[in-house]
Fold:
Amino acid sequence: MRTVGFIGLGAMGASMARNLAKAGRLKAVWNRTASKARALAQELGVEAAATPKELARSCPIVALCVSADADVLEVIEALLPSVGAESIVIDHSTVSVQTAQTAAARLRSRGAEFLDAPVSGGVEGARAGTLVTMVGGSPEALARARPALEAVASTIVHTGPVGSGQALKAVNQVLCAGINQAVCEALALAQALGLDLKQAVAVLSKGAGGNWFLEKRGPTMIQGVFRPGFKLALHHKDLTICLALAKTAGLTLPLTQKTLADYAELLAKGHGEEDISALWRLQAKLPPSPTDRGSPPW
Ligand code: NAP
Structure:
């Protein structure tokens, strides 16, 4: 049962590891900042591996959820000496299709399988174990990995070969950009009309314009609270991936371009570690805050 090692104990990964432990699947954890791994290992009664290589030696299934493309490839290289034909690596990070394919090729050189399994559902979904995961890779590897995936996700969809999970996740990130823009623009109108913003969020969440983002982030963003959630710098990374993918398909994605430019402005002002709902800063024309070009208020 205890066959899974988890790497990357951030906002998403720590909760996913907890749910794997709850399902009796987690054997070991590793995190770049070792103190986080030690604390979680103690909480869950599992091993804190000294290195990814050590983790892979004792865990035939390794799941990871790290920030960006270079981080995934760095972790894969660190795992390589310990993986073999019995190993499956599941990547829950959001990265490019090419990164997924490169990771799969590197692991295949050692006989190991790779699944790109990016997730959607936010930190709330990670905590509840109700994420949606879009899985690219062989059906056989997915069948072997399924019990581990079921511990973190309530919806598991096989999208096709390696990279197809990341392709669908890119589509999801385009949706998230548009929804963020629509929610901020709508609430900016409500604000300009002198409406009660708290009431607007509550009422509109129940109607045809309601959506996950308005319901979960609306109440906090109108108070100027942008605790992640989903870091703006990470969605900026995702939208760069989306635009590159769209270019290969001959599309331009104007709404995604606009969101990327808005995020770039917010990043330059030091808001990259805030939640993506910090887009409200621009739409609501919030005055520069003491946190501009500084650290967030928590
Ligand atoms: P996060 O809280 O910033 O955590 C990032 C994790 O990656 C940390 O554990 C960090 O280690 C680790 N990491 C970064 N670079 C690394 C490297 N080079 N080698 C090893 N470990 C490294 O991010 P998150 O929100 O959990 O997101 C993780 C991934 O899931 C991202 O690809 C993101 O796009 C995706 N995602 C996020 C959400 C969301 O709502 N937050 C939803 C769906 C998908 P340290 O502790 O040492 O910094």
About this structure: The mean pLDDT is 96. The beta strands are 4-7, 26-30, 47-48, 61-64, 88-91, 113-116, 119-120, 131-136, 153-160. The longest helix spans residues 164-192.
